[in-house]
Amino acid sequence: MGRFAVGLEDFMSCRFEELAIDCKNPVLIARFWTETLNYSVLSEEVGLVTIGPAEKSSIGPHPVLTFAQVPEEKSLKNRLHIDVRPTDCTQDEEVERLLSLGATYPDADVSDVSWVILLDPEGNEFCVLSSQQL
Fold first, then answer.
1. Which residues, including other chains, have CB under 8 Å from residue 115's CB and lie 6 or more apart?
2. Does the predicted model carry a pTM greater than 0.90?
3. Is 106 in contact with 118 (CB distance < 8 Å)?
């Protein structure tokens, strides 16, 4: 058996519960992502904001995002990033909406892919995937 092969009796799993994101201004970044994902603020304290779905979803659990204030600036490309997919508009319409919320384009030109790379207000990369069939 391969390294990841296990018998059913050995099967255990985890659920993706939370994505923790370091940032300079948790309130600013939480505001951007609540608008982007139609999430709500679930808890807020000094230097820490957690957002997530306001209601339980019938399509399964959705992870919460926690924004924690850190002293250092972002310096390199993210090793992990968020992908979003428009659910009720085209990819171009969603990109325009996100730009109006404070997203920006990165300096690098990546035009040979089907997704659009944007930066949140603190420069964290995320991708807008192509729209689902409307």
1. 83, 127, 128, 129, 130
2. no
3. yes
Locate 110 and state its tokens: 């990546």
Separation of alpha carbons 106 and 119, rounded Å: 6
Residues of the chain with pLDDT under 70: 1-12, 56-60, 110, 133-134
> Residue holding tokens 């679930």?
42
The DSSP string of 99-110 is HHHT-B--SS--
Taking the CA of residue 56 as centre, how many other CA atoms within 13 Å lie in the half-sphere pointing to its CB?
2
Give CA 120 to chain center in angstroms: 10
Distance CA 124, CA 106 (A): 10
Q: What is the pLDDT of residues 97-119, one digit of tens each?
A: 999 999 999 987 767 788 999 99
In order of start, what are the domains of the chain with their CATH numbers?
14-72 (3.30.720), 74-134 (3.10.180.10)
